[in-house]
Amino acid sequence: MPQLCLYFQLHQPYRLGEYELFDIGNSNAYFDQASELNKEVFLKVSQKSYRPMLSLLIKMAQEIPDFYVALSTSGVFLEQAQMFDPEVISLIQKLVHTGKVELLAETYYHSLASLYDPAEFKDQVQAHADFLKELFDYTPTVFRNTELIYSDQIADQVHALGFSGMLTEAVDRYLHGRDRTQLFVDYSGRLPLLLKHAPLSDDVAFRFSDRNWPAYPLHSETYLDWLSVYPEDAIINLFMDFETFGEHQWADTGIFAFFEHVMKEFLEADWNKTVLPSQVFAKEKRKQTMSWLKKHPEASLYQRKKLMAKGPSQWDLPRYTVTAPISWADVDRDITAWVDNALQQDSLRLIYSLKEKVLATKNNSLIHVWRQLQTSDHFYYMCTKWSADGDVHAYFSPYDDPYEAYRRYSVVVADFEKRI
Amino acid sequence: MIGWEYPPHNSGGLGVACQGITEALADRKHKLYFTLPYALKSSPAHMNIMACRDPDWETPVFQPPFLAYSSVSDMVNSATDEEKAQVAAHDLAALPSSEIELKVSQYADLVAKEAKKHKKKFDVIHAHDWMSFPAAMQVKKISNKPLVTHIHSTEADRIPSGYGSPYITHIEKTGMDASDIIVAVSNYTKRLLVQKYGVPDSKIRVVHNGMYFSDSMNPGSHHFAPDRPIIVFMGRLTGQKGPEYFVSLARHVLKDLPDALFVVAGHGDMYHRLLLQTAHEGLSAKVLFSGFVRNTQRETLLDRANVFIMPSLSEPFGLVALEAAERNTPVIVSKNAGVSEVLPSALTIDFWDLDAMKNAVVGLIKDPSYSEHIVEQHKKELQSVTWHSAAEKLEAIYKQAMIGTKKR
């Protein structure tokens, strides 16, 4: 049996309200009018997913000795939780207190800043870390980017921010047939990476209740069988939306019981364990350090101390070189869900072009609004790709169609531009 | 009078014009029978409406079998969304030509039946646009009364590429050939009929549309985006109206007026293309789309506009330009538009000449006194643009047609 590494994503965007042309100059309630909608969505999902799944995780963390899980919570998610359902914050706090949970770093605004503006990216990652400190007294050490977006250029940024490792997607065109269940390092050998196991993750996240799927209905025994074919040193990274549990897959599909049962059965055996990303990276760091020391008996005390503290400057692991950005979205596993057609490209150009003017105002609430407008969901709604992915986009979008998403965003920015 | 549409189900200027003309004629003590291919929920008092609807038609009783000149959302003023969806399926562009031909000919038969019954009650047949022409020709045959055809819009205007429906073009031509007198809504249209349809000049009379003056005026720039110049396009988003030139114009104007907002109001088949064009040209948040605007919003937009532009490729008249002028907005219209004949102070520019357009827009916005001067001229000229003067001319045309037929 392999090791399992679980990570679940929590995020909710601020959707735009019904802000129209005639509101320009008269109102700046871009999100306020929609807060009813945002609140409604949040409470609905909270009822179906956040609350029951967090409670289940707390129970499992308390009852099952070797059960560990990583969560990533966007800043805009946490803000809305505070506003609409503070109980969710309490549950996450409780979960963090079990000591069995790792919180990952990400951009506060769930933005695409890593693709557009490294300095802005850094600010948003810092803001997110500050918020985790404030709410949970927690300092994240492992990074995951919006929608697992990753490239060599992003690895450079994340390494420079001092993170011990990063999570992303395993994309066939960059794997070149290698196993996704091993630890990788970025193109420059400096940042270790865990890659999502898409087939086994998506079996749960997307296919679990699909009646046309040959494996339907998926029994925990079957799933455990699928896991059991992997060797002990393999790490299966099950990365998915937190909402998988209770929202994408409703409670009546049996998803909660399935999850609990799989985990219990899996951890029943003493030699099986779930691991946290930071544990994997720390263990590998020790291993690499020791092996370097063995190979270099002549190293000075200073070199030894430095190595023990900082880890190897070059990791001896297979390299994952990703020249063009990848993500976990759609069948393409690239960034075309957000950056594809002209509507998306010009909206992104526009919002990032306002940076200097916005920051010059030194007005925190304006800067906050500007960053809320950077949330990736706005651009996701503008996606015009068709096929099955289009359905997924439509499922999440508050708009009738991508053109309406663009039209409304444009009207809001037209007003915002004049306030800075 | 043989019609096809009447407010609130008006398509382009046709329905509005039918209302203006019939009300003014009724004021002059003419008795009018007006046929429609559907029933009106509330009949107007000034004339007798004769619903000539085939009971087998699937369209709702209170709606025309298809809207001839527009996307539905644009024009059916008071319809609910459900009603709109029903009619949308019966948009001209969405129908197979056999169905259009069938409905127009069924309508013709029904109108002819009514005409037989009322043969002795009318003196002149007045038919509006091609959908009514087959009916008009039958009625003329039955009654031997003079036929006046009224051209509000031709296929050559609607499909500027020249690849319009041969069927519709043919009906337009035969209808006009069968007429005693042809009424064109502008000299522009008259020239087009002579040049493209080969109609003899001498058969055509020009009767410009009038307009209804609004009583809810609220001019000024206080409505929205108070500090920014606003340039407005309002109309169907379709090739005929030239909205893509309006979008491209924004790029030119923004070089001189970086604060300007361009507003595109309306719906149509080019909507998605225009959004993509806007993004392609890097004009997001500079060119805004309001979607379909209803009564007050429409008025607000025309009030608020600093400049109104109608860059049509071919526009028989262009009523909305008069509305803009009435709302104290200086108007720029394409040279291919009839409306400047009654609004000579409108700046006329070739729709494709973006440099000249740009200079005109920048000139008007940078020089408020010039802009005010134009608006004053507009207002003066509007005084004489009435439906009554249209009715007066029509009356003379009826008389002439009657004399002409008696002679034969």
Task: Describe the protein.
Chain A is an alpha/beta fold. Chain A is built from 18 helices and 12 strands. In chain A, strands 1, 2, 3, 8 and 11 form a 5-stranded parallel beta sheet that branches. In chain A, helix 6 links the parallel strand 4 (142-144) and strand 5. In chain A, helix 1 (35-63) packs across helix 2 (75-84) and helix 2 (75-84) crosses helix 3. The N and C termini of chain A lie far apart (57 Å). Chain B is α/β, with parallel strands linked by helices and 408 residues long. Chain B has 2 domains: 13-210 and 387-407, Glycogen Phosphorylase B (Rossmann fold), CATH 3.40.50; 230-382, Glycogen Phosphorylase B (Rossmann fold, 3-Layer(aba) Sandwich), CATH 3.40.50.2000. Helices cover 43% and strands 12% of the residues of chain B. In chain B, the strands form 3 sheets. In chain B, strands 9-8-7-10-11-12 form a 6-stranded parallel beta sheet, sandwiched between helices. Chain B has a 4-stranded parallel beta sheet with strand order 3-4-5-6. In chain B, helix 4 packs parallel to helix 5 (133-143), helix 9 packs across helix 13 and helix 13 (354-366) crosses helix 14 (368-382). Chain B is globular, with a radius of gyration of 21 Å. At the A-B interface, helix 13 and helix 18 of A face helix 10 and strand 9 of B.
